[in-house]
């Protein structure tokens, strides 16, 4: 598969979340053996089911209102997607930025997704340098 196809797939994942289907809708587009490595999980590698449980615990009483992608950048078999999630809690709203590095095999199948708190860390994980400020 091409870089363009990989980016197209990652855009579909974000769209599935953003169209109200939530994380569950995005995971329906992926194979069950995908490895998920959210930085908030302290280095643990999660299955799709474990990711859902982790997300529900992380979300707590907050509700995901919006998943907003900012940019998609392909490099070889990896795609960096930067964006934000907006959550509503009982007393306030919160928004946080997140940077995913999605890794694909030669057939174009997603095999791993890792999150990073900063774009620079995500770029470094892809073997790229962050542009100077």
What's this, in brief?
The chain is built from three helices and five strands; from the N terminus they run H-E-H-E-E-E-E-H. The protein has 133 residues and is α+β, with helices and mostly antiparallel strands. The chain has a single domain (3-125), classed as Nuclear Transport Factor 2, Chain: A, CATH 3.10.450.50.
Account of the protein in words:
By secondary structure, the protein is an alpha+beta fold. It has one domain: Nuclear Transport Factor 2, Chain: A, CATH 3.10.450. It contains 3 helices and 5 strands, in the order αβαββββα. A 5-stranded mixed β-sheet has the order 1-5-4-3-2, sandwiched between helices. The longest helix has 25 residues, at 3-27. The chain is globular and about 45 Å long. The N and C termini lie far apart (33 Å). The mean pLDDT is 87.
Give the helices and strands, then pairings:
Elements: H1 3-27, E1 35-37, H2 48-59, E2 63-75, E3 78-88, E4 93-104, E5 110-116, H3 119-125
Parallel strand pairs: 1-5
Antiparallel strand pairs: 2-3, 3-4, 4-5
């Amino acid at each position: 598969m091409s870089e363009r196809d990989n980016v197209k797939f990652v855009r579909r994942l974000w769209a599935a979340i953003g169209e109200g289907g939530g994380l569950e809708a995005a995971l329906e587009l992926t194979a069950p053996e995908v490895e998920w490595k959210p930085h908030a999980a302290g280095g643990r590698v999660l299955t799709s089911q474990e990711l859902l449980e982790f997300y529900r615990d992380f979300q707590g009483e907050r509700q995901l209102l919006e998943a907003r992608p900012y940019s998609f950048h392909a490099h070889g078999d990896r795609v960096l997607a930067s964006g934000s999630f907006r959550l509503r809690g009982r007393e306030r709203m919160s928004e946080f930025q997140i940077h995913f590095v999605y890794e694909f095999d030669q057939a174009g199948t997603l095999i791993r997704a890792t999150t990073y708190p900063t774009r620079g860390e995500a770029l470094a994980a892809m073997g790229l340098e962050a542009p100077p400020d």
